[in-house]
């Protein structure tokens, strides 16, 4: 084994390859659980392009648990209006064709304690980086992972410092690939991907509008958020900040729609072609603009055939590639990190069995695949109808956006149910769903026995397992006490016909166990009605199951 210059092999419990949105989120979450981890990032700093900007409610819940929610909302208001939209237009000067979401937060408080927030990766990553560091994660930039080997106990990775070319070796219990779209780790592990594949070789145009007065005369110039454009010349989307200063335009398809060449605007990209596309999307000859930069990238829809190889796990874009339509890519990656963080923490602290991390793949793989398929469907509807045969070919089941964002269901051996789990229900309606094992513990306001009123239930998540009980919950409280603090209990005050009892299917002598990631792990409607003989024995069985002991 290659050793470091001083002959030692460094050790760290978790090595995270890739220090962007997903790697930094995972590092901060692990560090919050007190797990030592190291992030290596081949670039010298965090993101230089805006990319992911629409942060969904469950993503914001994760950032709330990290103490970043308020500052993100504040930062967002520097660039975006409170009211942001997702629409399709003919051009800025042309007709409004469709409103997907007129105000991204309309009605959101019914189903979530957190809001949708627009904030670019450029603005967010420094916050995540500082948080991860503050909580104790080690961050190493300009450092690339170049090879890896693993055995049943550990992973050994070779790192190269890109400034000095010096290589070093590091050994970890787990290696998490958060190394993006072209994941080096995925290639080194030889994990192939499958799915519809390449949709477009796309061009992103970063620009600034120079005469705001002229712009203001155009019919659709006042919108901020995601503005799709569809006309004979271009199929594309603007991401508009309030001042149209840090805006960009993504061209996915140009020229005669349906032709092969139309899907590859990157191949013929030049300043001249970019000016033409931008002009066609604006739809007015007079508006002056300045193009700052062009970048090209591929819109791909596929998933690796597995998310795990031994002690290496894939997360983020390394674990699912999807077109940006709908803004699911980064959000799905943050949820990967949230699912993984507590599982690794519990195993590394000796509180869970070694097979718990296997449930990461069991739970996240169907969600990754379903989300990729839905992003493909959005892409076909919003940008490229000529690819609609792919939606049929892959038998895509479309979920309403809110269901996909907020109420996807997990199925795994770490959930405790009486009957078998129906794996064909991938999403449900967050406004009406009943909290069954594997469901998101959905948003309700609760009153606690110690006198707090109207607290969002999610306020209790993110810090271990929580056992919610009613006013006749004494046996559960006593039973939980004997389990050495594995389950923190919270006693609630509710009426049997009121919202908590109904949506969580419990009576005064029932109990609901919520995991650290805010999913229901187990529930019992009532000790009496379900004829529970020994609450402590049952809770012990539940603990064994949900922690894979
Ligand atoms: C135009 C556009 C708009 C988008 N809009 C949205 C949106 O609104 N909402 C949304 O959720 N998503 C959006 N996305 C998708 C989103 O940007 C990605 O899903 C997200 O960046 C994935 O994060 P990640 O951390 O998994 O990967 P990345 O951000 O790609 O980061 C991977 C990191 O790993 C590093 N790395 C790679 N290999 C190595 C190695 N061998 N050693 C060390 N480091 C390595 C890379 O340098 C990189 O920093 C958009 C994408 C595009 C292109
Ligand atoms: C590192 O290696 C690259 C490619 O081999 C080389 O171009 C560069 O000069 C080297 N840098 C240093 C600091 O040695
Ligand atoms: C699964 O879907 C079926 C049909 O839509 C529904 O009747 C059932 O209640 C769902 N199950 C869960 C656990 O959501
Ligand atoms: C599972 O749910 C699907 C649809 O949601 C339904 O068609 C099917 O009958 C259900 N299967 C079982 C065993 O309940």
From TrEMBL:
Origin: domain of life = Eukaryota
Alphabetized UniProt keyword annotations: FAD, Flavoprotein, Membrane, Oxidoreductase, Transmembrane, Transmembrane helix
Any keyword Flavoprotein? yes
Membrane-spanning intervals of the chain: 12-35
Pfam families registered for this protein in UniProt: FAD_binding_3 (PF01494), Rng_hyd_C (PF21274)
- According to the entry, every stretch annotated as the FAD-binding domain falls at 12-375
What cofactors does this protein use? FAD
Q: Which PANTHER family match?
A: BINDING MONOOXYGENASE, PUTATIVE (JCVI)-RELATED (PTHR43004:SF19), TRK SYSTEM POTASSIUM UPTAKE PROTEIN (PTHR43004)
Q: What is this protein called?
A: FAD-binding domain-containing protein
């Amino acid at each position: 084994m290659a050793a470091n210059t001083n002959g030692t092999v460094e050790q760290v419990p978790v090595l995270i390859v890739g220090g962007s949105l997903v790697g930094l989120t995972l590092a901060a979450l692990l560090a919050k659980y007190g797990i030592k981890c190291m992030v290596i990032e081949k670039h010298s700093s965090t993101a230089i392009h805006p990319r992911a900007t629409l942060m969904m409610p469950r993503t914001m819940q994760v950032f709330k648990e990290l103490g970043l929610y308020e500052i993100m909302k504040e930062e967002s208001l520097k660039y975006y209006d409170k009211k942001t939209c997702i629409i399709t237009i003919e051009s800025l000067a042309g007709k409004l064709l469709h409103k997907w979401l007129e105000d991204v937060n309309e009605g959101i408080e019914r189903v979530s304690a957190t809001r949708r927030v627009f904030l670019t990766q450029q603005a967010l990553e420094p916050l995540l980086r500082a948080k991860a560091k503050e909580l104790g994660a080690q961050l190493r930039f300009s450092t690339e992972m170049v090879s890896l080997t693993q055995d049943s106990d550990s992973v050994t990775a070779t790192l190269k410092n890109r400034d000095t070319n010096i290589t070093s070796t590091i050994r970890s219990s787990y290696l998490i690939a958060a190394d993006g779209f072209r994941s080096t780790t995925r290639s080194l592990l030889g994990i192939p991907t499958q799915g519809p594949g390449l949709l477009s070789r796309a061009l992103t145009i970063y620009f600034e509008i120079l005469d705001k007065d002229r712009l203001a005369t155009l019919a659709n110039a006042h919108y901020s958020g995601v503005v799709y454009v569809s006309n004979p010349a271009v199929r594309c989307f603007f991401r508009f900040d309030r001042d149209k200063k840090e805006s960009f335009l993504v061209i996915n398809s140009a020229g005669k729609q349906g032709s092969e060449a139309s899907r590859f605007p990157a191949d013929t990209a030049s300043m001249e072609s970019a000016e033409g596309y931008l002009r066609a999307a604006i739809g007015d000859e007079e508006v002056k603009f300045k193009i700052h930069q062009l970048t090209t990238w591929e819109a791909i829809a596929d998933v690796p055939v597995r998310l795990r190889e031994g002690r290496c796990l894939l997360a983020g874009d390394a674990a699912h590639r999807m077109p940006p339509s709908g803004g699911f890519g980064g959000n799905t990656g943050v949820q990967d990190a949230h699912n993984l963080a507590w599982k690794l923490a519990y195993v590394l602290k000796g509180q869970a069995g070694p097979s718990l991390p296997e449930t990461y793949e069991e739970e996240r793989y169907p969600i990754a695949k379903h989300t990729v398929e839905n992003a493909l469907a959005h892409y076909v509807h919003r940008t490229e109808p000529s690819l609609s045969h792919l939606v049929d070919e892959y038998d895509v089941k479309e979920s309403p956006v809110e269901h996909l964002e907020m109420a996807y269901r997990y199925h795994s051996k770490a959930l405790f149910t009486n009957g078998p789990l129906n794996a064909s229900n991938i999403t449900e309606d967050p406004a009406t769903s009943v909290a069954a094992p594997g469901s998101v513990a959905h948003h309700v306001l609760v009153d606690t026995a110690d006198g707090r009123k109207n607290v969002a239930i999610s306020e209790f998540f993110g810090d271990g397992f929580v056992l919610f009980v009613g006013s006749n919950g004494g046996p559960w409280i006593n039973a939980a006490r004997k389990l050495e603090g594995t389950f923190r209990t919270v006693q609630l005050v509710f009426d049997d016909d009121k919202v908590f009892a109904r949506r969580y299917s419990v009576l005064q002598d029932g109990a609901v166990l919520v995991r650290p990631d805010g999913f229901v792990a187990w529930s019992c409607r009532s000790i009496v009605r379900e004829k529970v003989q020994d609450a402590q024995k049952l809770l012990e069985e539940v603990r064994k199951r949900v922690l894979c002991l």
